[in-house]
């Protein structure tokens, strides 16, 4: 509701057309000035010459005021038939006026010389003309053809530029068509605000002129200026606040679509209610004190008779009839803009109701809607687009349940009439390999068949990227479900490229099926139809289509302390941060887990969003946080992103330490990088986006700085808490915590992530214990400082004035006030005592227990003594002097900050504000109030998160892995790796091996760039229940047996051992020649066999060098996508099974035939295989090569009867794969776009570019880390140094710390204010969706909401 409107104050738009400025500017100014003069003159005359006349009583004034509604009688255009109720209304008002004036004795006896005789018709006529809808409409129109022509030329140029930038999309025609209308609406709103500002300014000028220049009248009420106007505070409040409050409530009522019940009827009843209160003034002492009873009474002083009520009632009925136009023609849609509701955004203290009725007589105009009834028309399709990769059975099931609820929603299909308006699309990374489903995609197909039993697959197509499956789901929406199975050999993987695919799919639609909105979700979210309605309605309520995206409230689900932390973290992120961004400017992250994007906005940024990573800094934005980067692009393009608190979704969050840290390792650098990108382009964004103001950018700067120095701030907090809680000297705890942090920095730089996370767990425990002590210590110190009359640390500080005598000659004490004795006296304690008694001087003297206080007057003409005469040590601090003998005082002048005297110390005040804001925020979200309980976990883990996790994130900035949903078999291989890693690093340090450092750094960098790079893309594999794709043939080799190879797909998927070794050591390295025979001799002939090798396997084949084994382990972890998918089912025959596992050589076939004679049932063969030991396998089957033996043992262990669920998945897989063969030739013609071609990925095919990119990424990491460490070091040194200088402290806090606390208190205050505003907006949205009249439900601008399992006001 709060918008950045200050840019509209610029009236330079007139100077853009110099030749026309004189004519147009004078025309606009003269028109508005003339109307302002009429308005102010009418109000001035009626106030001072009519209401000020003693012959005009209150009933007469009430009845006369309603005559201004004659403005409705002035026709506008073709609306003449609406004059019928206006005519009757004016007739009722006229009858009431005539009856009142002819029966009011005082009015009839009014002297002919009274100014009220002519002031009444003149003032009412002026107001009726100034406020009539026709005149107000004329002020909003500039009828100058040349100006309009220039505006049209500018709009056409913008259309042409946008069309040229997006001409490759068919769907962009929708975007281009709306540009002119949207710009026109924006210009209209801007013109409305400019005209309002100009009108109010002219009103003030005319009012001041009338009060100070116009000569006083004869009534005695008006004199020169304001000199004779006496207004009590109560009168001012009752004059200003009701008018302003009535206007605000009127805007809210109209925006909530309840103008009949909460706007028109109350305003029509206002005259009657006013008269009733006036006639019964004894019921309200306040009213009786304000209103003069003589004015209200007749000649005889008796109360009014019932005829007066009748006359006022006639006027009220006339007013209601005059408002019929407002009721039937100006019906607004939900959340209408104020500029679309009222002609001018201002109110009057007098004639408040009448002015609002005439000002409201404006027909809302929307560029894309023809009537208020079109408010729920989507004007296109909504694509529910989901990205999937390795979701579990339960996560996929949760998503499909959400789709099922949406498809079966009767309210969406019938009440909103959104049947056939939705499509559901799932883009599955690595969903298919050729014609074989992967394990996870088969699981999804099985679940679809299970959830929608009455629905069969309607269509299957071979696409350029893989396969497309279609189901037509039952329900009121007639929702089709499409599953797009991506083959990573045909199209780029990762979530961002899946998003690009569905964005371009939406843009490429033909006009007769164009997509208006994209609802982006993740594959593990739970949502309902009501949340979709809430977000779409917020989109539809955006009349100018400035909102490019709307995001929802995300709830993490799971169990354990890490989930508790995330529950509170998500809560305060939405309660405070997101609402602050929404209200102040724009939300900066619309997560892809559940957000609605406007396709027109997507068209503006998709070109840049699909660009490749070409610089190291782009890696953080494009690949590590694609949702936040996409939102940043929307903001840069001029779009606003909103937060809809009425929409909910739940998503699974990390429950384990490693997964949680790896997730935040991506999020933290991505967030910082996008904030820096936003601030670097601040000027362009401020110009392009009217919602991004300088105040908003300053707000983001403060948040960015707070994030950077959060580590050092936590160290200072824990240091102080340890001092108060356990008596640990501050320098000891300070050095200890800094050393721990620096040690962790070194570990994160030089050790593997497994080592980093293990050390992080240990350090988190240490920080947790330290934080527990610090919390108790801080609470204890707060209690002491607020209860002790003489705190150990002074609340004030003073400047030493010198040594003075205790007595002033014979007139008594030099400082005679508040003399008292204090135990363990110090100068600080004496200053505290004097400060509390409001004195500015304190003095201490022997015997060191007496404190004297005095004022400036007491120290006048005082005689200063030699300093050596004040040498008596203070009992409370031997290092200080408290006067001297005989009878000398050590005098201090108390320093005071701007006269501020806080009831509690600064720390207590800050903690109370922070805690209070969070508690009130929780109370404003009653259904989420329990999240505040998880704040305890959040509090105790603050140092661990803001110190260690920030260090971990910055140091691992070069890591390109996704971090979540990794195959568990690839996470950590063995505990010995951890200790080997430490031994290697210690050896490097002790031997000062520079080459080792360089090699390790390069290898670590290579690992971070490649390690699980495919995690999001990779070829679906779990620990068990795997199936093997068609075309998979590995090459088996035993000793002295040639390898058999299969050409085709296999050659592209797996590298030979030589190719793999060359990628590690280089093509000309001698190590390739040394290690290749070791691997191939033992059957490790390609990466499918090498994948999964452990340290023991490397030792077994002869790799003795510890450094090389460490290199191999790091690169083997990158090959988990090459591990074979092995079917768990009992095979039908041995030969098929050997072919499936890649060991179908002639030698192995002959050995199996010899061991198991022909005719032996396959089930018997595999039962015996499962009982064989390794030695028996070697002896009976002749499999001696260690790689082949390892593959055979793995395949044997996986042979089993599948469970019921696994059987269902396998059946679904076989069924779909059978249909694949039938449709293999039916390939949909589509040109593969170069940026989606996986063979064009930069830095992966060109070794030189790859090395250059890695080096740039390493330099970026080093620069970020250096900046992070320097910023925190400077902050620590400044704060720790200032703490040691008590004389510089203000309010018991050093100046820098006070500024820091004050700044963040202000930030929290701004966020809290934004929260209140957003809560009010959410309440308005909810109320607006409740129908007030059942019979008009279908015609309402926003139908009633769907019952949700969440709170109605989230």
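Sequence proposed for the structure above (1354 residues):
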């Amino acid at each position: 509701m709060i918008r950045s409107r200050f840019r509209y104050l610029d009236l330079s738009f007139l100077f853009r057309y110099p030749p026309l400025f004189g004519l147009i500017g004078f025309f606009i100014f003269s028109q508005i000035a003339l109307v302002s003069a009429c308005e102010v003159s009418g109000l001035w005359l009626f106030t001072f010459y009519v209401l000020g006349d003693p012959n005009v009583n209150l009933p007469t004034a009430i009845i006369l005021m309603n005559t201004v509604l004659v403005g409705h009688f002035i026709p506008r255009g073709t609306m003449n038939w609406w004059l019928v109720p206006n005519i009757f209304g004016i007739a009722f008002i006229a009858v009431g006026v005539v009856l009142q004036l002819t029966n009011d004795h005082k009015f009839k006896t009014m002297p002919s010389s009274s100014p009220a005789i002519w002031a009444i018709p003149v003032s009412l006529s002026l107001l009726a003309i100034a406020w009539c809808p026709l005149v107000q409409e004329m002020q909003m129109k500039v009828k100058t053809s040349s100006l309009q022509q220039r505006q049209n030329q500018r709009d056409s140029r913008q259309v042409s530029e946008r069309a040229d930038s997006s001409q490759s999309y068919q769907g962009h025609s929708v975007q281009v068509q709306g540009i002119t209308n949207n710009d026109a609406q924006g210009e209209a709103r801007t013109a409305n605000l400019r005209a309002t500002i100009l009108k109010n300014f002219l009103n003030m000028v005319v009012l001041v002129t009338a009060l100070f220049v116009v000569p006083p009248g004869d009534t005695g009420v008006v004199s020169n200026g304001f000199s004779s106007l006496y207004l009590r505070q109560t009168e001012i409040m009752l004059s200003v606040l009701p008018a302003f409050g009535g206007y605000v409530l009127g805007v809210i009522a109209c925006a909530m679509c309840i103008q009949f019940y909460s706007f028109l009827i109350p305003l029509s009843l206002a005259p009657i209610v006013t008269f009733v209160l006036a006639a019964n003034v004894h019921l309200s002492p306040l009213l009786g004190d304000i209103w003069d009873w003589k004015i209200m009474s007749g000649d005889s002083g008796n109360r009014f008779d019932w005829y007066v009520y009748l006359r006022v009632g006639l006027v009220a009925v006339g007013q209601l009839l005059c408002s019929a136009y407002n009721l039937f023609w100006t019906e607004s849609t939900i959340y209408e803009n104020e500029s679309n509701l009222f002609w001018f955004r201002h109110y009057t203290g007098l004639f408040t109701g009448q002015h609002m009725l005439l000002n409201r007589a404006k027909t809302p105009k929307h560029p894309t809607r023809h009537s208020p009834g079109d408010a729920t028309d989507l004007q296109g399709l909504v694509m529910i687009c989901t990205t999937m990769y390795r979701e579990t059975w339960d996560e996929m099931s949760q998503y499909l349940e959400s789709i099922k609820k949406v498809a079966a929603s009767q309210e969406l299909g019938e009440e909103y009439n959104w049947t056939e308006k939705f499509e559901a699309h799932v883009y599955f990374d690595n969903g298919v390999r050729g014609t074989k489903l992967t394990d996870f995609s088969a699981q999804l197909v099985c679940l679809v068949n299970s959830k929608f039993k009455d629905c069969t697959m309607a269509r299957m197509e071979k696409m350029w990227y893989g396969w497309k499956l279609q189901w037509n789901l039952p329900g009121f929406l007639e929702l089709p479900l499409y599953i797009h199975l991506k083959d990573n050999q045909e199209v780029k993987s990762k979530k961002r490229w899946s998003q690009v695919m569905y964005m371009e799919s939406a843009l490429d639609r033909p006009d007769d099926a164009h997509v208006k909105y994209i609802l982006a979700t993740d594959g593990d979210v739970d949502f309902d139809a009501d949340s979709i309605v809430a977000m779409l309605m917020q989109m539809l309520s955006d009349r100018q289509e400035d909102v490019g995206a709307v995001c929802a409230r995300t709830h993490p689900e799971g169990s354990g302390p890490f989930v508790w932390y995330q529950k509170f973290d998500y809560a305060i992120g939405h309660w405070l941060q997101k609402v602050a961004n929404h209200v102040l400017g724009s939300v900066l992250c619309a997560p892809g887990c559940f957000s609605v994007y406007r396709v027109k906005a997507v068209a503006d940024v998709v070109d840049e969003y699909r660009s490749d990573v070409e610089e190291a800094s782009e890696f953080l934005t494009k690949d590590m946080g694609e949702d936040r980067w996409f939102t940043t692009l929307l903001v840069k393009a001029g779009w606003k992103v909103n937060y809809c608190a009425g929409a909910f979704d739940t998503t699974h969050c990390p429950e384990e330490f490693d997964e949680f840290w790896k997730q935040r390792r991506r999020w933290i650098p991505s967030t910082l990088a996008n904030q820096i990108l936003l601030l670097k382009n601040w000027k362009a964004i401020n110009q392009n986006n009217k919602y991004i103001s300088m105040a908003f950018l300053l707000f983001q700067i403060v948040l960015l700085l707070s994030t950077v120095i959060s580590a050092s701030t936590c160290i200072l907090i824990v240091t102080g808490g340890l001092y108060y809680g356990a008596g640990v000297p501050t320098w000891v705890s300070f050095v200890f915590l800094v050393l721990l942090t620096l040690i962790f920095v070194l570990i994160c730089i030089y050790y593997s992530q497994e080592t980093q996370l293990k050390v992080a767990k240990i350090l988190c425990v240490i920080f947790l214990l330290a934080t527990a002590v610090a919390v108790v210590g801080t609470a204890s110190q707060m209690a002491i400082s607020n209860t002790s009359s003489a705190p150990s640390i002074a609340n004030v500080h003073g400047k030493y004035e010198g040594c003075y005598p205790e007595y002033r000659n014979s007139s008594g004490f030099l400082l005679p006030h508040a003399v008292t004795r204090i135990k363990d006296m110090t100068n600080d304690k004496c200053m505290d005592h004097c400060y509390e008694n409001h004195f500015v001087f304190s003095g201490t003297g022997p015997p060191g227990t007496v404190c004297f206080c005095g004022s400036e007057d007491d120290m006048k003409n005082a005689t200063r003594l030699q300093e050596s005469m004040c040498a008596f040590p203070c009992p409370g601090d031997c290092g200080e002097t408290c006067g001297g003998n005989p009878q000398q005082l050590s005098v201090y002048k108390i320093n005071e900050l701007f006269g501020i005297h806080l009831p509690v110390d600064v720390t207590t005040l800050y903690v109370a504000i922070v805690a209070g804001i969070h508690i009130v925020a929780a109370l404003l979200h009653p259904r989420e109030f329990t999240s505040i309980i998880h704040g305890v976990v959040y509090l105790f883990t603050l140092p661990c998160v803001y110190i260690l996790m920030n260090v971990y994130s910055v140091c691992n900035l070069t890591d390109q892995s996704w971090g979540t949903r990794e195959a568990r078999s690839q996470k950590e291989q063995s505990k010995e790796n951890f200790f080997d890693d430490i031994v290697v690093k210690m050896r490097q340090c002790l031997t000062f091996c520079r080459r080792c450092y360089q090699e390790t750094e390069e290898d670590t960098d290579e690992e971070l760039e490649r390690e699980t790079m495919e995690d999001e893309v990779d070829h679906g594999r779990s620990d068990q229940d795997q199936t093997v794709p068609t075309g998979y043939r590995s090459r088996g080799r035993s000793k002295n047996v040639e390898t058999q190879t299969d050409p085709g797909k296999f050659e592209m998927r797996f590298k030979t051992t030589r190719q793999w070794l060359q990628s590690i050591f280089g093509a000309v390295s001698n190590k390739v020649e040394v290690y290749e025979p070791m691997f191939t001799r033992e059957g490790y002939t390609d990466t499918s066999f090498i994948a999964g090798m452990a340290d023991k396997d490397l030792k077994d084949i002869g790799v003795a060098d510890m450094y090389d084994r460490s290199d191999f382990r790091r690169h083997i972890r990158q090959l988990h996508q090459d591990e074979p998918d092995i079917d768990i089912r009992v095979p039908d025959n041995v030969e098929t099974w050997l072919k499936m596992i890649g060991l179908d050589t002639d030698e192995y076939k002959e050995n199996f035939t010899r061991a198991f004679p022909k005719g032996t049932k396959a089930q018997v063969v595999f039962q015996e295989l499962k009982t064989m030991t390794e030695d028996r396998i070697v002896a009976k089957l002749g499999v001696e090569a260690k790689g082949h033996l390892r593959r055979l043992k793995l395949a044997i262990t996986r042979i089993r009867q599948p469970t019921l669920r696994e059987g269902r998945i396998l059946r679904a897989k076989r069924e779909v794969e059978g249909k694949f063969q039938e449709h293999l030739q039916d390939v949909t013609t589509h040109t593969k776009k170069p940026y989606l071609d996986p063979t064009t990925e930069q830095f992966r095919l060109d070794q030189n570019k790859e090395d250059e990119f890695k080096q740039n990424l390493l330099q970026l990491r080093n620069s970020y880390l250096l900046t992070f460490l320097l910023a925190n070091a400077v902050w620590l040194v400044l704060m720790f140094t200032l703490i040691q200088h008590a004389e510089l402290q203000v309010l018991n806090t050093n100046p820098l710390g006070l500024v820091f606390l004050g700044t963040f208190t202000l930030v929290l205050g701004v966020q809290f204010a934004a929260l209140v505003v957003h809560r009010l907006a959410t309440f308005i949205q909810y109320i607006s969706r409740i129908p007030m009249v059942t019979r008009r439900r279908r015609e309402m601008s926003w139908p009633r909401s769907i019952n949700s399992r969440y709170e109605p006001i989230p």
